[in-house]
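Would you kindly consider the sequence and fold I have copied below?
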Amino acid sequence: QERLVESGGGLVQPGGSLRLSCVASGISFRLYSMGWYRQAPGKQRELVAAITRSGSTDYPDSVKGRFTISRDNAKNTVYLQMNSLKPEDTAVYYCNGRFTNTYWGQGTQVTVSS
């Protein structure tokens, strides 16, 4: 059964850091392009980081220089290192895997507040 399971969310003060992890099972992880999305209350889900199976990365301007996506194919895991967090980064963060099919994780809450 295909699954993506996120972890690492929580409450952090502005300027702080968090590292999210997403472990994949039931898929040929190395073939998949992986991404992290977020959705804040009342807003559309948006892409915050993407990494291809060859390791190329892409970020929107809103997080560029603060967020870093990486992958470990040996561990079937994709990471999102988030630094210099701002209150506007508060959202549920979702892991996404795309190849012949698309899979989503259940999401992990990130709250940036003092």
